[in-house]
TrEMBL record:
UniProt keyword annotations, A-Z: Fatty acid biosynthesis, Fatty acid metabolism, Iron, Lipid biosynthesis, Lipid metabolism, Metal-binding, Oxidoreductase
Organism of provenance: Amycolatopsis cynarae
Quaternary assembly: Homodimer.
Protein name, per record: Acyl-ACP desaturase
UniProt cross-references to SUPFAM superfamilies, sorted A to Z: Ferritin-like
Cofactor(s) the record lists: Fe(2+)
Pfam family, one: FA_desaturase_2
Protein family (similarity comment): Belongs to the fatty acid desaturase type 2 family.
Length: 309
């Protein structure tokens, strides 16, 4: 009986997982979410005899509130993400240890971002809770992807999330939020390195099939927060502000990983791999063009608004 490719890959890659798990645990620094929250700025809400939320209580700009909401709601969906990677990797051995360690680390992100927003009254807590309920009830489902596709997707996704958190923190112009989101982004970076190294190892074992997975995930990439209510409108506002846009995605997310893996220098590919590389190259050209056009539209819009009547 022939062993399925997915099973064989998980077995072949387990030593890589174990080595990278050990590396991760060695370099990871313990941190406490409560130490990043300005508790002294908190007070009771209306049902406890305090003051109900009003827009004027928030010191954040509308775009900063939107970006923080999207980042938080994305992190809130952790149960769905846990299910996805456990389904792909399993619960046994180094794979299972990583799945649960990753989940435990990710769980801190929503905790501290929500606490920050509530104690600073940064966003409407009622609307935030309604959006959380809707997002989590929708869930996140990759459709039972092959492990190679999961490796590739999470590599890009973790890097994208790291940049989104980091840029959001800077955009808030609040030193507390900036420090908090920089800490969250540091976690995301370590997670990206773990998955990036898995893809590197997979390219040595199954170069063509792995390149096919990379191409598919780049071409069909969507942020995990795409199921958030009103995501398209919110993403457009975030892009217009330069927090996360097509240029950032092309230059700072997709290309750094592709260069690291050397996808355009790989040799010995079969027909599947060569076709994937051709499709990837063509898509990158289109993405670069789209990013350039978006930048031009944004610049024209900024110029129009800067003109004094």
């Amino acid at each position: 009986m022939t062993t399925p490719l997915s099973t064989r890959l998980l077995l072949d890659l387990e030593p890589t997982v174990a080595a990278n798990l050990d590396r991760h645990l060695e370099v990871t620094k313990e941190w406490m979410p409560h130490e990043y929250v300005p508790w002294s700025r908190g007070r009771d809400f209306g049902d406890l005899g305090g003051q109900a939320w009003e827009l004027g209580q928030s010191s954040l700009s509308p775009i900063a509130r939107t970006a923080l909401e999207v980042n938080l709601l994305t992190e809130d969906n952790l149960p769905s993400y846990h299910r996805e990677i456990e389904r792909a990797f399993g619960r046994d051995g180094a794979w299972g240890t990583w799945v649960h360690r990753w989940t435990a680390e990710e769980g801190r992100h929503a905790i501290c971002i929500r606490d920050y927003l509530l104690v600073t009254r940064g966003v409407d807590p009622d609307e935030l809770e309604r959006a959380r309920m809707r997002t989590m009830q929708t869930g996140f489902d990759t459709g039972d992807k092959h492990p190679l596709n999961v490796f590739a997707y999470v590599s890009f996704q973790e890097l994208a999330t790291r940049i989104s958190h980091r840029n959001t923190g800077r955009y808030t112009q609040d030193p507390v939020a900036d420090k908090l989101l920089a800490r969250v982004a540091a976690d995301e970076n370590l997670h990206m390195l773990f998955y990036r190294n898995l893809v590197t190892a997979a390219l040595e074992i199954e170069p063509s099939q792995t390149l096919r997975a990379i191409a598919d995930e780049v071409i069909g990439f969507q942020m995990p927060g795409s199921i958030i209510p009103g995501f398209a409108r919110k993403a457009a506002l975030i892009a217009k502000a330069g927090i996360y846009d097509l240029r950032i995605h092309h230059d700072d997310v997709v290309w750094p990983l592709l260069r690291h893996w050397g996808v355009f220098d790989l040799e010995g590919l079969d027909g599947v791999g060569e076709k994937a590389r051709e499709e990837l190259s063509a898509f990158l050209t289109r993405l670069d063009t789209q990013a350039g056009r978006f930048e031009e539209r944004r610049a024209r819009s900024a110029n129009r608004h800067s003109v004094t009547p």
